[in-house]
Amino acid sequence: MTIDEKRQQRAEVLIDLEDAQETLRHLQVKAERQAEFLEGVAHKVKYNASLKPSGLDFSMATDLANRLGPNEQAIPDFTTIQKLIEELRAARQKIFNLEQQRSQLGNSGLTVVAG
């Protein structure tokens, strides 16, 4: 393999690594949003579980406040959450593999500055 081919290969790995890191960041934001959403739903359930029997439970305002709102009713199912967890794992694995590949290419004595 020529020096130019090695440089090209290293540049391609660096580009792939940047893309993989961006994908992981996107998935992490998505996972954080879903976790916050689920925490909100869990909070509402815990709050309802902690209420004592009271005449207030029968008022329209209390009933509406204790129910899940329309936005809270779109709870992701197990399959959706499991798929996101698998996507996060795959993205981390891809970055790990690309970093290993970059390290191996770096040990070949070439230094390429991506830019």
Give an account of the 3D structure.
- This protein has helices at 3-50, 60-66, 78-106.
- By secondary structure, it is mainly α.
- The longest helix has 48 residues, at 3-50.
- The mean pLDDT is 88.
Short description, anyone?
This protein is mainly alpha-helical and 115 residues long. The chain has helices at 3-50, 60-66, 78-106.
Spell out the key features of this protein.
115 residues; mainly alpha
Q: What summary fits the major beta sheet?
A: none
Could you report the average pLDDT, rounded to the nearest whole number?
Answer: 88
Percent helix: over 70%
Taken in chain order, the helices and strands follow as HHH
What fraction strand?
A: under 5%
> Which segments are poorly predicted (pLDDT under 50) over 5 or more consecutive residues?
none
Based on DSSP secondary structure assignment, what is the total number of beta strands?
0
Structural class: mainly alpha
Shape: rod-shaped
Give the helices and strands, then pairings.
Blueprint: H1 3-50, H2 60-66, H3 78-106
